[in-house]
Amino acid sequence: MGRPATLLEGLCGHALSLGAQSIEVQRKDGREWVFARQGAVGFGIASYPSSGAYAKELRGNLYAAAKRRVRTVVHGQVFILKVRVFDSFGEDAFDVQMDPAPKLDPSTKPSFTAKQGQYLAFIHYYTKIHRQAPAESDLEHYFRVSAPSIHGMVKTLERNGLIEKTPRQARSIRLLVQPEHLPPLE
Description:
34% of the residues lie in helices and 30% in strands. By secondary structure, it is α+β, with helices and mostly antiparallel strands. It has a 6-stranded antiparallel beta sheet.
């Protein structure tokens, strides 16, 4: 699936793979310490020098996510990252909850752009005709855009809960939008 979008998302993915439900980030002794939390138990998963680029990137990610929740895909599942900033001995510390995103309600039309609708319609019709999901190269040929553009759109559709994919499995796109909510394919 490629590199996570941010350092924060990568750390959350690592913590989830270890069975944690949240992470905590604190500054102590000139370092940023990242702890994965599993209930009341916490264990260290990363440490960066506070003056280093990784620590600055992580703090930037955390402050941005505290203002606006982040949707991310980890191991094929969509999660919402909720960041709470709190005081820890005069320094900002962060608690990051990693909650599974709610599934779409099939009875209501989901929100998506016209362009996203075309991608969703193509996935639907391709799957119906070929009895297998399209590969990203099939999307690339139909829409006549670059491979990175297609990959970015697929990641966006997955992050928005409009499709699901099985990590590291070819042709695994599953449409989560009801066909009646799709626009006509142009």
